[in-house]
Prior knowledge:
Elements: H1 10-27, H2 50-55, H3 74-78, H4 81-95, H5 99-104, E1 113-115, E2 119-121, H6 123-151, H7 157-167, E3 168-174, E4 177-184, E5 189-195, E6 201-207, E7 220-228, E8 233-240, E9 245-253, E10 258-267, E11 280-287
Antiparallel strand pairs: 1-2, 3-4, 4-5, 5-6, 6-7, 7-8, 8-9, 9-10, 10-11
Amino acid sequence: MKTTASRPTxxxxxxxxxxxxxxxxxxxxxxxxxxxxxxxxxxxxxLDSVEQERRSRQVELTVVSAPSEDRDPLRERIFNDRLSxxxxxxxxxxxxxTQAERQLFxxxxxxxxxxxxxxSVSFVEDQENKQRFGEYMMRRxxxxxxxDYAKSNPSVRPVYELKDRIANVDMEVRPNYKFRxxxxxxxxxxxxxxxxPLGVDTRLSLMMDPGSxxxxxxxxxxxxLRYPLDRNITVSYHYKLEQGVWSLIGERRLSSSLSATLSxxxxxxxxxxxxxxxxxxxxxxxxxx
Length: 289
């Protein structure tokens, strides 16, 4: 009887190829060299026998030491402690004395809000004010570093000394009582400090047009008194002469990053002006990281 062989189907062909590959994969270790510690097709460092590991030489991982810290980072060369305190004081005068007060009047594009519990501005006006403050910071940074360069350069040092004599004037009225006048070319304001043996930090700020170069008409006069009761408690008083607004702030430091504040603000009766006025008592808890 004559028989005919059936042709393999594609499914049978794939099955045969799969079985062949599986068989070769299982048989591959047998083709390795006898006594070799490496399996065929295996990465270096892997062994096919635990006993061979005892005779192998292990190399410990070398840990790279941490890079040395920069003793003079760029940030500290641009913003030192003196500039940071100056910027902080100017920011508080413009946008609120305490962290709780600045958080209370958070910018809102759909409503007006107040600075220092009295001056009502819109969202756009607030953005313009903060832009002008940023421009003041840039001018002050340039001025400070140009002065720092001029002090060490003999060719331009006389110009710096003349500028410094105009902007900084000290006057002693009696022993341990001294007035210090400091004019800011960048912000166009004058700070008058009164040194006294009582330990009361006294400052009178005469604010002029920040967009003008040179003294102009005084827009606002701010009197600030600050007295530390102990290492953790301070009391401060601030009075704006033109707006007729005064505030009293007590601050207690709870930890290195946590502080509590109690502030009250009101205005003097009979003062002129069209600004919205209000009385405010605010208790705040601030955490700085």
